[in-house]
Structures are given as structure tokens and as C-alpha cells.
Amino acid sequence: MSAATSQEAPRSPGVLTRALSGQGARAMGFMRHAGAVMILASRATVSFFRSLATGRFELRSFIYQLEQLGVRSLGIAAATAIFVGIVMAIQFAFSLERFGARDSVGRIVGLSMVRELAPSLTSLVVGSRIAAGIAAELGSMAVTEQIDAIRALGADPIKKLVVPRVLAGIVLMPLLACFAIVLGVGSAMVVCQVTFGIPMPFFLSTAIDTVDLADFLSGIGKTPVFGFIVCLLGCHFGMTTRGGTEGVGRSTTTSVVVVSISILVANAILTQLFLSLIGQA
To answer: I want to staple 131 with a disulfide (CB 3.0 to 4.6 A). Which of 71, 98, 217, 234 is the partner?
Structure first.
């Protein structure tokens, strides 16, 4: 027993050291990526205002990104909003029916969709799709040295590749969130009529009467920040891709994970901020 203990004792410091070194490496990697993202954000902001001042804004590229990121995301945004609205209507109507408060379903669903569900879930689902597409596209350009070729020609890859995508994300996310609110409330209204016998005009009127401008702005106001985060992180992981096609797949997966976590964290912070502003008003 004592011999076995004496043999196992020297191994514990080695395992602990490896664990600590692994956590330290992850922390350093996180700080390195966070610093690179901040630098990219500052360079993209400066490049945007400089292009506006000189009249050399990439308008054609911006319109192209609106179509690529926005129009092609309508399907997944619509599916998310419709089925979230259906589930919310069924759950609340079934639960409130026990307490004789079924008439409040429209108020609760409308307020939930406008304040939280439509903006957050749309940004989470659509943002993951957008970030993956950007990371794959720019990652392929990075491993085939196309980004280096842009620099060699004297052009700024931040201006040509990052700024149009980030600006398109900022513009598109509020529009997609409004689209999701309409579809989510509409699908909930239809389900309540068909399943629970709640008249659609009554459902819609109670939902509209409950939601005010502050509720709408507290939900939609978060989406430009989400769009900025999604496109900026997608551009960062795409432009820093190394290692050929395997590296492209790794960057795409990492961008989806990081974007999802970042949206959840930003949503928690922005929700508290907007609610505190509403309370002070």
C-alpha cells in the first residue's frame, strides 16, 4: 500500500500542471482573439467613415451582401418565428386556461415576441447561418491567398471585405426581427383561433394594446448590436483562417459557437440595460 502511494504521488503535480497549463492556454487564446476582434472593429469603423468622407464607399458590395445575408435568410427566419409563435400560443393558452385567464394569451404572447423571442431567437438562428457563411467564404479566400493578393494590389481588405458585411448585418437584423414579430404573432393568433377558440381580432387587439413603443424599441434596439457582433466575428474567424480546407471547417465551426455565446451574453446585458432605461423613464 505504501509503495503504491509513493508511486502515485509524483504523478499528481504533473496532472495538475497540465490542467492549469491547458486552462492558461485557453485563456490566452481567448484574450488574443478578443484583442484581434477589437482591433478589427476599430479598423472597420475608421475605414467606413473614411470611405464616406472620400465618396469611395463600396455600395455595390453592400447591396450584394444585403441580398446574400438578408434575402437568403428569410426562410430560416420565417420558420423560426412561425414555430416559436405556435409553441408559445399552445403553452400559454393551455396553462392560463386552468386559471380562467385564457383571454390574456394575446397580451403575453405579443409582449414576449416583441421584447425578447423574435429579436433574440432570430438573431441567434440567422446569425449562426450568416457567421458560418462569412467565415467559410473569407476562410477560403485566406487559405488561397486571395486576401494577400488584395493587399499586394494596394487595396484595403477591411474596406472591401469587412465593412460591407458588417454594415449589411447592422441594417438587416432589425428588418428580420420585425419580419419575425409579424409572423410569430400571426401564427400564434391562428393557432389560438383554431385550437382554443380565441377570436383572432380579439387576440390581435389585446396584443397591440399591451405592447407600447418602449417595448418595441427595447427588443428591436438590440438587433443592430447583434448584427454587428455576428458579421464582425464571422469576418475575424474567416480572415484568420490557416491550414487549408481543414482550417476553413474549423473556423466555420468556431464562428458559429462563438457567435451563439456572444449573442446570448450581449442579450443579457442589453436586456438589463434597456429595462433599466425604461424604468427610469
So the answer is: 234
- Parent domain of 103: 16-280
Rounded to whole angstroms, the Cα distance separating 230 from 267 reads: 13
Cell of 168: 449589411
CA torsion 148-149-151-152 (nearest 10°) is 120
pLDDT tens-digit readout, 127-158: 999 999 999 999 999 999 898 898 888 888 99
Residue 117 covered by a domain: yes
CA distance readout (Å), 132 to 13, 23, 110, 125, 141: 41, 26, 31, 11, 14
Judge whether 254 and 221 are in contact, CB under 8 Å: no
C-alpha cell at 223: 438587433
pLDDT at 123: 92
Report the alpha-carbon distance of residue 85 to residue 78 in Å, rounded: 11
Q: Of 228, 224, 226, 237, whose CA–CA distance to 166 is shortest?
A: 228
Of 225, 129, 132, the closest CA to residue 174 belongs to 225
User: Total structural domains in the chain?
Assistant: 1
Q: Strand runs (DSSP E) across 38-86, as ranges?
A: none
State the pTM of this model. Answer: 0.86
**Residue closest to 270 by CA, chosen among 216, 220, 222:** 222
Domain assignment present for 6? no
**Separation of alpha carbons 106 and 122, rounded Å:** 21
Residue 85, CB half-sphere, CA atoms under 13 Å: how many? 31
